[in-house]
């Protein structure tokens, strides 16, 4: 199955709304808040500057960038009109923030227009990351910074013991909702090939033990397996119920590793 994040609008309004809500929940997680705060603290943004997020989704991270960068201008570009509509609805009254529909390989920006460009959990869902990185480098000012934060989906798990049936949902999510589960190991090479100096590469573990944060992984994969006829409704219902049971009694365990990579464009 093709990664639906490659064409979100084709996935339909229910998918868009579900994942817009899921992204807000994920970003409210203290670990994710700390990851974003850490990389924003490493980026130089002048008061009259401009920050671009490519693949902004429904704006969960873009809104945080806007609060951090204020009064600098922040623009979230997103190829899905459905996500853009959700992002605008959720933006509130932020004075320095706007969302526009655009493909990440063809931004409506002049050369050297941005002080910083951010990819937050985007490149693991695209076929040609190098093309998006090249466009980001084009719009970066000399000395500007490119920030990439993405999950090492090859390490994602919901397993608490050998042959844990709930982990089937994590593996199924990675197989069906991720384009490149091993993108993290390639990021430094991509930035170097694009002519950037890699100034930061770090990993942060995210442990999920509370309700809702990974429930979409379980619900969507269980229902998809049911619809394909791989499993019956009883097992699909049981997988979802088991997630909820563990969350209720405090035994839910999910793991992800997030990488933050920062590259800087030369002055010449």
Description:
The chain is α/β, with parallel strands linked by helices and 268 residues long. Helices cover 41% and strands 22% of the residues. The protein contains ten helices and seven strands. The chain has helices at 8-11, 13-28, 30-40, 60-69, 81-90, 129-139, 167-177, 187-193, 215-228, 233-249, and strands at 50-54, 73-78, 97-101, 114-120, 140-151, 197-208, 254-264. The protein has a seven-stranded mixed beta sheet with strand order 3-2-1-4-5-7-6. The radius of gyration is 19 Å and the shape is globular. The model has no long low-confidence stretch (mean pLDDT 92).
| Cα gyration radius (Å) | 19 Å
Number of helices: 10
Counting helices, strands and paired strands, the structural category is alpha/beta
The number of distinct β-strands equals 7
Strand-residue fraction? 15-25%
């Amino acid at each position: 199955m093709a990664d639906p994040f490659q064409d979100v609008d084709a996935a339909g309004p229910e998918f868009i709304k579900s994942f817009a809500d899921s992204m807000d929940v994920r970003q409210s997680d203290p670990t994710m808040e700390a990851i974003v705060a850490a990389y924003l603290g490493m980026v130089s943004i002048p008061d009259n500057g401009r920050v671009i997020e490519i693949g902004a989704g429904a704006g969960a991270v873009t809104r945080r960038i806007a609060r951090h960068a204020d009064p600098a201008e922040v623009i979230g570009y997103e190829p899905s009109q459905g996500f853009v509509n959700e992002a605008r609805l959720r933006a509130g009254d932020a004075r320095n923030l706007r969302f526009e529909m655009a493909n990440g390989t063809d931004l409506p920006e002049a050369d050297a227009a941005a002080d910083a460009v951010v990819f937050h959990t985007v490149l693991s869902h695209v076929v040609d990351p190098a093309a998006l990185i090249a466009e980001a480098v084009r719009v970066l000012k000399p000395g500007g910074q490119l920030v990439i934060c993405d999950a090492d989906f090859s390490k994602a798990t919901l397993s608490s013991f050998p042959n844990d049936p709930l982990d089937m949902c994590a593996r199924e999510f990675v197989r069906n909702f991720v384009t490149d589960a091993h993108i993290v190991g390639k990021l430094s090479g991509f930035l170097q090939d694009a002519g950037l100096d890699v100034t930061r590469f770090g990993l942060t573990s995210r442990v999920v033990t509370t309700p809702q944060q990974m429930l979409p992984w379980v619900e969507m994969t269980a229902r998809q397996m049911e619809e394909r006829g791989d499993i019956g409704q009883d097992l699909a219902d049981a997988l979802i119920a088991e997630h909820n049971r563990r969350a209720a009694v405090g035994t839910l365990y999910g793991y992800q590793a997030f990488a933050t990579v920062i590259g800087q464009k030369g002055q010449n």
